[in-house]
Structure formats: C-alpha cells, structure tokens
Amino acid sequence: MSKTNSGNFFEDFSLGQVIAHATPRTVTAGDVALYTALFGPRFAVQSSDAFAQAVNYPQSPVDDMLVFHIVFGKTVPDISLNAVANLGYAGGRFLAPVYPGDTLSAVSEIIGLKENSNSKTGVVYVRSTGYKADGTEVLDYVRWVMVKKRNAANPAPAPVVPELPGELAPQVLGNAVPMLDLDGWNNDLAGSAHRWDDYAIGEKIDHADGMTVEEAEHQMATRLYQNTAKVHFNQHTEGEGRFGRRLVYGGHVISLARALSFNGLGAAFHVAGINGGRHVAPLFAGDTVYAWSQVLDKQPLEGRPDVGLLRIRTIATKNRSCADFPDQDSAGAYDPDVILDLDIWVALPK
Amino acid sequence: MSKTNSGNFFEDFSLGQVIAHATPRTVTAGDVALYTALFGPRFAVQSSDAFAQAVNYPQSPVDDMLVFHIVFGKTVPDISLNAVANLGYAGGRFLAPVYPGDTLSAVSEIIGLKENSNSKTGVVYVRSTGYKADGTEVLDYVRWVMVKKRNAANPAPAPVVPELPGELAPQVLGNAVPMLDLDGWNNDLAGSAHRWDDYAIGEKIDHADGMTVEEAEHQMATRLYQNTAKVHFNQHTEGEGRFGRRLVYGGHVISLARALSFNGLGAAFHVAGINGGRHVAPLFAGDTVYAWSQVLDKQPLEGRPDVGLLRIRTIATKNRSCADFPDQDSAGAYDPDVILDLDIWVALPK
Amino acid sequence: MSKTNSGNFFEDFSLGQVIAHATPRTVTAGDVALYTALFGPRFAVQSSDAFAQAVNYPQSPVDDMLVFHIVFGKTVPDISLNAVANLGYAGGRFLAPVYPGDTLSAVSEIIGLKENSNSKTGVVYVRSTGYKADGTEVLDYVRWVMVKKRNAANPAPAPVVPELPGELAPQVLGNAVPMLDLDGWNNDLAGSAHRWDDYAIGEKIDHADGMTVEEAEHQMATRLYQNTAKVHFNQHTEGEGRFGRRLVYGGHVISLARALSFNGLGAAFHVAGINGGRHVAPLFAGDTVYAWSQVLDKQPLEGRPDVGLLRIRTIATKNRSCADFPDQDSAGAYDPDVILDLDIWVALPK
C-alpha cells in the first residue's frame, strides 16, 4: 500500500460516509495577525479586545472567514484533492464564536453523489462541520464539488442529489454572537455611523477600494489554512495547465471582498450565515479585486434586541471598479469581470 | 447619504477639529512576529523577553516603529485618504511602552490649515495621539499632508500654520523606558560592544546591508497597520497613475532603515523621539534599501543614570550603497538615490 | 574602531574560540503561525494543542526546523557573514522541546580550521548549541563553512579537521519527546494510518506535491530567523553576482521538504536528529520544490515503548517531479535537478 495520499476519487465516496479530517489546528493570535496582514480587515469587534469586551465579548473573536477557511482547508485532502471544480456552497452557519487558543477540527458527511454523463467525473455533495476540542460546533456548511473518477469504466453509483439549503432562516443564525451591550458600541471606533436600522432593502453599496493580489500572499494564506489543493502552489505543473498559472484559492476572494466591504458596511461585524456562493471566474496573482454589495433582505433576530441581520449579496470583480455595480444581464450572464457572487447574512448592532 | 467613506477633502477639515479614529487594535505577539519577518530587527530588548526582563522591563516591549505605524494607520481613513503627498512629520514622542495585549487607538486634532495658491489642494496640519484602552498615551506626533480640495471653487479658510516642533528637548523624552538595571545588559547578547559613551557627535556609520522590497511585503506590512491609503495596494489604478506602480508606504522605509541600523547602532534599543522626517523620493517594489546614520547630538537624560540619548540623522537610499554617505549638496539638493532623511533621538544604555 | 560589523574573516577564528551570539529570541505563537503560512506543515502534534495534550505534551511544541533555523540564524553574523559556501551539517540533536514563550540563544565553538590551497579561503568547523534562558540545551549541531580570508598573505593556522559525527546513534536522540500516551494518538486526526511498525528499511516514498517559492516568502522566513546573510536579501548586489539573483536560504528547502514529507510520513511528528545535510544546488524564487524519501534504517529507542526512529534520507528537487526518485548515479553524480540531500532521524508513534 502506498504511503502517499493521492486523494479520493469519485469512486472512493459512498453515500452517508463520514470522514474525520486531519489535522486539528489551534488558532492563535499569530493566525489573526497574518489574516490582518493578508486582507486588512478593520471590523472593530475582531480587531480590538477592548472594543469586544465593551460590547460583552470576553475578548475579540477570530474572524469568521478565517474560521471558515481553516475548516474548509481540513476537508481538502480528503474531499477535493482530485477536484476539477468547486461548484458551490450553501447553508453555512456560524454556530459559536472562536477565540485564540481554540483547536478546530472538521468532519464531513457525504450527502449526495451524481456521476456526470461523460463518466469521467462526478459531483460529490458534502456537509462539513467544524468543531472545537470540547465538541462545540462552530460552523457547518454544504459544498458540492466535481471530482475526477479514477477510471471511467467504473460503475456509477445510484444518483442522489440532496435538497440544497436555500436562503437560511434568521432563526437558525446568530448563535455565535453573545447578547451585546450596545452601550459599549462606539460608532467612531467602529468606523461607521450606520447601524442595522440605517440600511434599506435594495440599497447598493460600492466598497470603492481595490486590492491587488500577489503570489506570495495567496500562497501564504492558503498554507495558513493547511489547504493542500495543488493548483494554488505549483507553478511547475500549473504553468503547463489550463490557465498557465497558479489559481488563487476562491476563499481568498471572499476574504478580500469581506475586508473591502468595511467601507460601507463597517458595523456588519459578523458573518452569521452563508446562503450560497459561486466563484464565477478565476483570480490570478497580479489582478486587483473590487467589490460591491446589495441589501437583499433585512430581518430582526427573535429575542435579540441587540443585533439584526442583513442579507447581503456581495459581487467581486477583477481589474474593474464596482462604482457602476457590475452584475448579471437579464439572461443571467455575468459581466466578464465578475469573479464572485456571494449571498450572506451579516449581523449589525441595532 | 452614501454609506461609503470617500475620505475627507481639504474643505472638510476645520481648525481645532478633533477626530476619534476607527479601528482600535489589540497588538499581539502575532503582529510582532510579522514585523520581525518583514524587517528583520535584531534589537535584543524587543526580541527577547528574557533579555528585557534582565534589564527591568516586565517583558519585551513592542517595536516603537510598529506602534507608530499602527497609530499612523488609524489616522489615514480620516486624514489622508485624499492626500497628494505626506509632507513631513515632527515632534514625535514615545510616551509609554506598549506590550502585546495592549489595545491602541488614535485621536487627531487639526492644528493648521493652509490652502495652496492653485486652489486645488491645501495643507492640513494635524497632531495625532495614540493611546491605550486605559487612556495611557503612548505616542504623539505632528504631521502635515497635502490634501485635495473637493472643489477648487470652494472658499479658502483663514490660513493657520502652526509653529512646528523643532528638535525635541531630551527632557520630554525617555518615559517609555523603565529605569534599567544595567547589570543585566549583556553586550554579547545585545550584539554591540558600543554603548552611549562610545559614540561621538559627528560620527558617521554605514549600516552596510541592503534589503530588497517585494510587493507582497509592503502590502502585508501596510495592511497589518490597517493603513488604507489606496496607492499602496491597487495596481489597477496605480498602473495608470503618476508612477505606473504601487507606491511603498513611506513608513516601510523608516522600518527598514531602523532594522538595518542595528549594524552599527545595536545598543540603540529605543526610538525615543522623532524630530522630523522627510520622504525625499518614492520607493517601489524591487528596489533595494540601504542606510547610514550620523550622530548629530548626544545628551544625558536627567535623573537617568541608566540611559542616554543620541540624536541620529538616518539617510536611506535605494539601489545605492551608503559606504560613501550619500547626502545633500551644498545647495541642499539630495543625491538622487536618497529616499529618506530622518532625524530621531535614540536611547542607549550607558 | 568601526561600529559596523563586517563579519569575521577566516583569520579572525581560532581553535577553541567560543562565541556567544546575539540576539536572544523569544519564540511565540506568531512565529509558529508564520512558519505555518510559509511552509504549510500539517503534523498534528505541532498544529494542535489538543492533540499534543492528548498524547502527553503540555501543549504543541514549536516545529523542530523552526528551532533549528532560529539557532542557525543567530550564528550567521559571527560565523558566516563572509562565507562563500555552507558546506554541510552533521551531528544535529534536538535535545528538549521548545514551546511558545521560550527564549532561544546560541553559542558556538570553533572546532576546526583548515585554509584552502588557494590561500583565499578556509574552512571553519563549528559546533553550535541553542539553549533556553534557563540554560536548557535544545539543539546542537556541527557545520562547516568556507569563509573568505581578509588577506591571502596572512599566514595559515595549523590545519585541524575535527572528526565529524557520522550517523547519530539512536540512544543519544529522543529526549525532546516526553513519554507519549499513545491512547491519545488518533490516526485520523494525525492524517496517517502508518506508524513506526508500518515502515520498512529500503522503502521509497514520493511526497508527490510541489511548492513554488516566491521572493517575499523566503525573505520573510529568513528574516523571521534573524539570519542576516546578504545573498538572500539584496537584489542590487546579487543581480551583479554569481547567479544574478538572490539565493534562497538552504534551510528554506529543508523546511519545504519536511512539510511536503507529511504526505507519506504523516506520523513522523518529530525530527530527532540530523545525521548530515548537503545543499547540492541552489534554489531561486520561481522554482518549484518536490521531495522524496527513503527509509535507511529503523531503530527502537531504549526504554521507550511509545516511539521508534526511522532514519530517512530526503532528496529535494526543483522543477522536477520525484515520482521516479531522482538520485545520484553510480559515480555519485546527482541528477541535475536535485538540490538537497538530507539524512535525518525522525520519531514516529509505535
């Protein structure tokens, strides 16, 4: 038996299979600093222990997307080492705050399998859960990914396509936020005069700034998450591949867009849920990422006088300002510079 | 009202205006590690808790220039997002040591305003103060910056040019250093046989080494400080701009020169004050930074048998060795490779 | 006397000379995060405090190679600033675990000197020891390095070539590992079903993945270790030098190979000793590193029912897959793409 992990192929997955992923990871202040250096987020709750404590956190929680990337990274060696494409995510819920010192692990369950008609690939649907060493669940989400078959001649499994979660209901969200003491919320320090009440459904916000990505940056980020997908790291093979270049991890775009969104959504301190996300086009080093958001919905949280939710659709582009809100046309085709279409719930103070 | 911050223009400032800046920032061991990775400082007090404790610090303090950059970074979204040029700094005093775990915030006061004769820009003079969550002031400094007007037709304010601090007097400096126990100061571990007494006014020191800057490095550094100035991050717009390239944050040069200065000033463990600083020419990724220093003055600190101050002028160049001390000519014109002219007080053990 | 350290030349060393190196360095969670971001190691003991505690460590120890690089880095300003080539290492023993918060220092003894026949250079043999602030030794190793003479006319010292340690005996190794509680060792979380018993002498393992190195990455890594060797940082001079490029620190290749070796040696959580190492060819930014290993020997550790040792030879290449195990030919000549030949003892759970 080879000692080397060549990753699972489509035939290696079975419905209901549960995979406990390596390697557990203690998140530290070092990871937080790197995340800041790589993306430049400025949300006060995550940046300042003093601000966090003033509103009733015990200390600054770790950025939600850093938690997501670490949990996601753990699933890669087992789920997507032989992936052709990461097709989408849905139903992502942030269930508990994560603090420096917490150790994160991940488990995945195979919830759907459908071979493609070419017999060379199939779609694997998987629900992944991140949890702390004490068993506390911190995140779960569904993703589906197109994975190569080892051998086209191998028989197809019975196709099972799970019902994918649509828009998450507000009542399943918000548990990662303690009851806030809004007397401690200082708009100046938070960097935004606009709270939950100030946003209107339909409102569009250009996040204005652009951020150019370097190879060293996306490689460092993706290794920080212990994500081992080869396309991000190996110019020797990718130079001969589809794009002739290393591909930037899709999650890098999400984190950039989220950091950019501070400009216009500065009080949206928490990503409560991920309704869905789609990487519309690839990003490469040297490209500059911009983003804009639209408020799709606005909901209170039951029993929570402190925070409310905005459902935000965030579009990211490359090498194109978002001042005119580039989008899909009436036939659903995206502006050619759009790279990300993300649908999330964010929490803001009332 | 737009949710997006497009920054203040010259007309938006008024004399005496006080601005509490977002985002407070807890400095951690992670930030310190990144600073080490980005600049390579080797001053023993900041590098080793054991060394720091041996000389009577409770633990290693955070590098002074990291404190400066974080405080400076906070001021950018309010003061200099629409800046044409950062014209200078003066009167910078490091007032208290900062340790990992401390949260830094910044407040600025507008102390001068003078519209330029072209009516398109004006100079804003601002005193910024960094402080901890408990109110302890850790740094104050004055800078003046040329900011665009929103509209040249807008009326000019009455011109007020504040008296700028010149050379700081020794007696206002040194408070960030506890009384040192010099029995614990080990020259071998400190990396220098030369203490305060060993330096002479007029002495010139070539710091010898050169350091090449990469785009990923200066972007990571500048994001670490949550400095949002667009020119450092956006190749898409800067490629069409004045230089065709992203501009390296001027503070990056200061930190490189300070780290290089260890070679010749290894015992100069603390920057006590910044008399003045001028970015003579821009730095771009791919350039190599060198530095040399001259001792301008030498002063004891009243009541302090442990440390003395040297006033140091540090010149940094790009792509040019400093072995022959490149400088200004008799007419004041700089050698074309000079990029920084910095005038600081540093503390050394006696 | 010049204040600038221009480094020692061959004539400056004397047999038996002991050098206490600057600058002591407190290792933190920030350094660990950077190491993860730069190399992507996934060994569970170092990644997860919870995993480490489950097997009887008080918390995750710092990666062995990070300890090595920090100790090595301290020796550079005194030993190898004027080196022409780092010729080899031998006899490296990891003597005690290092945890975040520990402060590392280094001392070196000159154990051999031999001038080369050209009278322009000589070989310096040095034993370096890394220790904690409380005196605990954490690492010792021998290296030999070719250093320039200041002046070819200076007389040669009596040649002394020390007996170099060959393969380290298992009984001198393993002290950096506490007695493990293997009930707590979870193969799924560790990422490998293969323990010590599962490896056979002679077995070859392709580590499969490739990692491309960027200038910013190797510069940040090498500065993190406070290693000041000029060739890694100065494009202005190296552009005119032997290779026309900055040279990547040899230890960077070791860390990449070690991180890649997780794929096939996932349970080899600890580098217990370094029998020898040779940098066969230089690495430059833009190159992609691959690695493979062969099991040379397999030994129990006396009195240790928990762990056993494998002697592993790890070969790294650039821009060439290791699927066919590129090696030396019968005359000892290396495949032209080989860059590292490393001989180490690693510890695995039984």
Q: What is the topological layout?
A:
Three copies of one chain form a homotrimer.
Chain A: E1 18-20, E2 25-26, H1 29-39, H2 44-47, H3 49-54, H4 64-79, E3 83-94, E4 103-115, E5 121-132, E6 137-148, H5 187-190, E7 204-206, E8 211-212, H6 215-224, H7 235-238, H8 250-260, H9 262-265, E9 270-279, E10 288-301, E11 304-318, E12 338-349
Antiparallel strand pairs in A: 1-4, 2-4, 3-6, 3-9, 4-5, 5-6, 7-10, 8-10, 9-12, 10-11, 11-12
Helix pairs in contact in A: 1-6
Low-confidence stretches of chain A: none
Distance between the termini of chain A: 59 Å
The CATH superfamily of chain A appears as Hotdog Thioesterase
Count of distinct strands of chain A: 12
- Whole-number mean pLDDT of chain A: 97
Q: Estimate nothing, just give the exact number of structural domains of chain A.
A: 1
Measured by residues with Cβ under 8 Å of the partner chain's Cβ, the largest interface is: A-B, 52 and 42 residues
| Shape-level CATH architecture of chain A | Roll
Output the number of helix runs of chain A: 9
H/E series of chain A: EEHHHHEEEEHEEHHHHEEEE
CATH class of chain A: Alpha Beta
Helix content bin of chain A: 10-25%
Summarize the structure.
The structure is a homotrimer of 350-residue chains. With 350 residues, chain A is an alpha+beta fold.
Structure write-up:
- Three copies of one chain form a homotrimer.
- In chain A, a hairpin with a 4-residue loop joins strand 5 and strand 6.
- By secondary structure, the first copy, chain A, is an alpha+beta fold.
- The first copy, chain A, contains nine helices and twelve strands.
- Chain A has a single domain, classed as Roll (Thiol Ester Dehydrase, Chain A), CATH 3.10.129.10.
- Chains A and B meet through helix 1, helix 3, helix 5, strand 8 and helix 6 of A and strand 2, helix 1, helix 6 and helix 7 of B.
